[in-house]
Amino acid sequence: MRLRFTKMHGLGNDFIVIDAISQRPNLSPETIRSLSDRRFGIGCDQVLVVDYPTNPEVDFRYRIFNADGSEVENCGNGARCFAKFVRERKLTGKSSISVETSTGIMVLKVNDSGEIRVDMGEPEFTPANIPFIADATASSYAIEVDNQCYNIGAASMGNPHAVLVVEDVETAPVLTLGPKIENHPAFPNRVNVGFMSVVSRTEVNLRVFERGVGETLACGTGACAAVACGIQQGILDSTVTVHLPGGDLTIHWEGPNHALFMTGPATSVFHGQVRI
Ligand SMILES: N[C@@H](CCC[C@H](N)C(=O)O)C(=O)O
């Protein structure tokens, strides 16, 4: 079939977005991998699929696939692109949109400026729910990689994240240590790995080695998890600007029993058709 798609990005974290309401493609892991391939396909970090909700009280269902073909629970930059996509394609006229993912319901609000504010729900720190193998919940954990000990924060934003505080993100071992922590046995479902340097209590730099992709120019859930871990460790305030290689996100979290909010842009690049 000829598949219609839109190429989008959130701060350079790029997506192929597919309307599975007006077309019903069979997206096997192999098809996802070939669409995502930057040389033999269209190229992207994630494929986003917009579908009918299973819950009638929600506007849409949104599924996320990493470039390696694995289906994942959540994607923050993808959520903002999803909101822009359903409005641009006139699938809804609402400025407050509810969407079902495999781990829950999110509410997205499109601001007058065009930026999108996403209610990302409450960060989860209980190790079993991340999932992460540890005896008890803590604000940091020691893990061993190649006989060296690293301190990490661990949180779930629907998907699993490990966060390391480093002096300087430019020189942090993102490409060498990232994949080793991604596949560390303490994370049974693998993990996204953030390297965060703290500029002040309201400003951080962040690079993320994403599970199933590699380093991306931005990771929305990674920014949420990094700030949540920083707040839990007492080193950050409740509103933080996160500088990622692709641009800035604003994260706001009042602490336990409150939802965390992420605000940032979403961009459409082009529309196309591809034979699958
Ligand atoms: N880029 C995303 C996260 C996408 C999923 C992630 N790689 C995972 O495997 O959990 C974001 O903006 O949050």
UniProtKB/TrEMBL annotation:
Homodimer. Catalyzes the stereoinversion of LL-2,6-diaminopimelate (L,L-DAP) to meso-diaminopimelate (meso-DAP), a precursor of L-lysine and an essential component of the bacterial peptidoglycan. Its main location: cytoplasm. It catalyses: (2S,6S)-2,6-diaminopimelate = meso-2,6-diaminopimelate. The keyword Amino-acid biosynthesis applies. It comes from the Bacteria. It is found in: Cytoplasm. Pathway: Amino-acid biosynthesis; L-lysine biosynthesis via DAP pathway; DL-2,6-diaminopimelate from LL-2,6-diaminopimelate: step 1/1. It comes from Sessilibacter corallicola. Belongs to the diaminopimelate epimerase family. The active site is at residues 75, 219. Substrate binds at residues 13, 46, 66, 76-77, 159, 192, 210-211, 220-221. Keywords: Amino-acid biosynthesis, Cytoplasm, Isomerase, Lysine biosynthesis. The gene is dapF. Its EC number is 5.1.1.7. It is an enzyme of class 5 (isomerase). SUPFAM superfamilies: Diaminopimelate epimerase-like (SSF54506). The keyword Amino-acid biosynthesis applies. InterPro entries: DAP_epimerase_AS, DAP_epimerase_DapF. This is Diaminopimelate epimerase. The record marks 161, 210 as: Could be important to modulate the pK values of the two catalytic cysteine residues. The record marks 270 as: Important for dimerization.
